[in-house]
Amino acid sequence: MASKGGELDEIVWRSPELAQSMQGVHDNSILFYFAGSPFFDPTSNNAILYSQAMFNPNMFHFIQTREAFEGRLKTMSGLEFMVAQEPAEKAPNTGTGVWVIRKQTRRKRPPEEDEVTVHSTYYLIGENIYMAPSVGDIIGSRMTSIISYMNKFISTAASLPDFSPSLGHTYMPPSSSRLRAPESQLSQASKEATPLPDSLPNAKKAPQTSANNTYLGNRLLAETLNISLKYGDEYMDEKPITGQPGDFHLSTTGRTEKDKLMVPLPGKTPTSMETKPGASMPDLVTDIPPARKGSKGDKSPKTPGGGT
């Protein structure tokens, strides 16, 4: 029986009683078994040919075998149901039991071949008949699944990123005990080991963040080493420097005072030791008069306790 409700591509039809009356579903009864399902169109050429054969003895042989029935359908124009694929035999007298039936419209174009337009495809497995979904239904189902998984992913990833001015965006596993204080985690690390005052014996301590601090410390150390290796050859001098690492600019070039930094050449007196033009060195005094004999010389100091 067909499942009630829903589209045709969402139901499964089977009739054990009809299959038993036809001595099972086989090569000569497959199209007539399919004609009892809700997938069958009573206005098709299959129904017209079957009705004519039942009331006209001269056409009865067309419904005896599937080859004769389909051969007669190929001479007619209009809507028809044809077997597109038979069960594949993996061994003698054993098959997969899967039949493929197509609903199609045939148009005669003599002397050219017939124009066949396929509308839908059906599968018959055992006694169950299924309607194959269309390409649009398959793509729509896949897109719905993708959107559902993307919503779950975005909801999960939204709680992962953390941002701080010093480190930027960091992605850490979600924790139920996240810190809600506006202070940075580095400043909180210094307050973990601070003893509580005696007046607050039952006060709760801040949650342990040693693991987070270790991660942040390693991250900060790695970025510091990276900056040092990248900009370690840049130095600051007495000239004002503007800019940032990797883009430093000197406010002055220092070329105007290059003479002060030059080393004097050998054999040349420094500028500060050169004599002014017109100046002469003072003459040495050579006419010093001799000392007189009767003159008293400088008195030597008296020693304590000594004689005259």
What does this 3D model show about the protein?
Helices cover 26% and strands 18% of the residues. It has 308 residues and is of the alpha+beta class. It has a domain of 131 residues: Roll (Nuclear Transport Factor 2, Chain: A), CATH 3.10.450. The protein has a five-stranded antiparallel sheet. It has a two-stranded antiparallel ribbon with strand order 3-4. Strands 8-9 form a two-stranded antiparallel sheet. A hairpin with a 2-residue loop joins β6 and β7. It comes from Amorphotheca resinae ATCC 22711. Its main location: nucleus. Pfam families: Med6. This is Mediator of RNA polymerase II transcription subunit 6.
Give me the oligomer status: single chain
Gyration radius, to the nearest Å? 55 Å
Instruction: Indicate the percent of residues in helices.
Output: 25-40%
Distance between the termini: 158 Å
Low-confidence runs (pLDDT<50, min 5 residues)? 181-187, 270-274
CATH-assigned fold name of one domain: Nuclear Transport Factor 2, Chain: A
Main beta-sheet strand count, sense and barrel state: 5 strands, antiparallel
Order of helices and strands: EHHHHEEEEEEHEEHHEE
Q: Report the total helices.
A: 7
Strand content: 15-25%
Mean pLDDT: 75
Q: Write down the overall geometry.
A: rod-shaped
Under CATH at level 1, the class of one domain stands as Alpha Beta
So, CATH architecture of one domain? Roll
CATH superfamily of one domain: Mediator complex, subunit Med6
Strand order of the largest sheet: 1-7-6-5-2
Backbone structural class = alpha+beta
List how many beta strands DSSP finds: 11
